[in-house]
Write a structure and sequence with these properties.
By secondary structure, this protein is an alpha/beta fold. It folds into two domains: 153 residues, Rossmann fold; 66 residues, no CATH class. It contains ten helices and ten strands. The chain has a six-stranded mixed β-sheet with strand order 6-7-8-3-9-10, with helices on both faces. Strands 2-1-4-5 form a four-stranded antiparallel β-sheet, with helices on one face. A hairpin with a 2-residue loop joins strand 1 and strand 2. It is globular.
């Protein structure tokens, strides 16, 4: 089976400074792939390049056999890629329902959108209780749930998750990662960027380690968990 996503020799520059250099990654259909590394290693930049939020200096991004290296961000969403960014970035002054509707902005099937809102509220019962509440008044964990639910409203085949545990209490983190596992079970492919390397690798099928904008090493998540280089640098 062909990879759902292939990143081939990708380079990205910010103001003349290299953020990613010759990065090659594959994501197989139906898997959770973890991308780990220290702050500033280029993890979020990788996701932003896939979403076409930053320009590609060199290399190619192939999604489902199609080169999207020069695609517009809205086209990427229509093709089936959803990005749940670091910091959640919701419409803080709008309701939970309004934020979910924003996630479906590329869709025209109103009945399907309504059904998917019901599906997300069933997946996140806490949001169902707060559907009319202003999103900016929610707790951090509830806001993360809104961000994930909003991303799922576009019915993605590939979900890009950037630091879903950031700033959350341990109990809420466990809940969020249980949701990630449940999404894999229904066939959503997930590329996960996560500062908590141990938790990411416990959840993922495979992983890549980014260091200073380059892939340092990769492998099965279980093998990375026991790799001495990873343990010393990222697992404590």
């Amino acid at each position: 089976m062909a990879p759902l996503l292939e990143i081939r020799s990708l380079s990205v520059n910010y103001s003349g400074i290299s953020a990613l250099r010759d990065v090659t990654i594959t994501v197989e259909p139906g898997e959770v792939l973890a991308l780990i590394g220290s702050n500033g290693a280029g993890k979020s930049t990788t996701l932003r390049a896939i979403s076409r939020l930053v320009p590609v200096a060199a290399g190619r991004i192939i999604y489902d056999g199609r080169d999207i290296s020069r695609a517009r961000p809205e086209e990427v969403v229509r093709l089936g890629i959803a990005h749940c960014p670091e910091g959640r970035r919701m419409l803080a002054r709008q309701s939970v329902l309004d934020n979910l509707l924003l996630g479906a902005y590329t869709r025209r099937d109103q009945a399907g959108v309504r059904a998917d809102i019901d599906r997300q509220l069933a997946r996140f019962p806490r949001l169902a209780e707060r559907r009319n509440q202003i999103a900016g008044t929610l707790s951090g964990g509830e806001q993360q749930m809104v961000a994930i639910a909003r991303a799922l409203m576009s019915r993605p085949r590939l979900l890009l998750l950037d630091e879903p545990s950031l700033g959350l209490a341990p109990l809420i983190v466990r809940e969020i990662f249980q949701i990630i596992r449940s999404l894999r079970e229904i066939g959503v492919t997930i590329l996960l960027v996560e500062q908590n390397a141990s938790l990411a690798l416990q959840t993922a099928d495979r992983g890549y380690v980014l260091e200073a904008g380059c892939i340092a090493f990769s492998g099965a998540a279980a093998s990375l968990l026991t790799d001495e280089r990873v343990r010393q640098a990222y697992l404590g």
